[in-house]
Design brief:
The chain is mostly beta strands. Strands 2, 4, 5, 6, 9, 10 and 11 form a 7-stranded mixed beta sheet that branches. The chain has a 4-stranded antiparallel beta sheet with strand order 1-3-8-7, with no helix packed on it. It is globular. The N and C termini lie far apart (40 Å).
């Protein structure tokens, strides 16, 4: 079913913006629940945001509410994470993930390789 591929990471100053993309060219993208996770340096992985199959519902971790926006374009097999008002504590490797269970899953079966986001002061 192929692999998820993230892009869009990089170095940005605090207060800046980045847009991450996740393409899933080989899978039945529209049937999967999708999510963005991140792993800050020295810390565990956390789910940042998730989106249902249709894109009709989204959920966010409290620390990014009002700053990050998750979206998807099923026609392009692509998911996005728009990150605004970035803070140094947003520095992490960001991963996209897909779940066959759809909705806001607790189990994700397919993962990307990760993209580094670094926010400087």
């Amino acid at each position: 079913q192929g692999q998820l591929v993230e892009s869009g990471g990089g170095l940005v100053q605090a207060g800046g913006s980045l847009r991450l993309s996740c393409v899933y060219p080989g899978g039945p993208f529209s049937t999967y629940g999708m999510a963005w996770f991140r792993r800050p340096p020295g810390l565990g992985r956390e789910r940042v945001a998730a989106i249902t199959r249709s894109g009709g519902s989204t959920t966010y971790v409290d620390s990014v509410k009002g700053r990050f926006t998750i979206s998807r374009d099923n026609a392009k097999n692509t998911m996005y994470l728009q990150m605004d008002s970035l803070k140094p504590e947003d520095t992490a490797v960001y991963y996209c993930a897909a779940s066959v269970y759809g909705g806001f899953a607790s189990d994700y079966q397919f993962w990307g390789q990760g993209t580094q986001v670094t926010v400087s002061t």
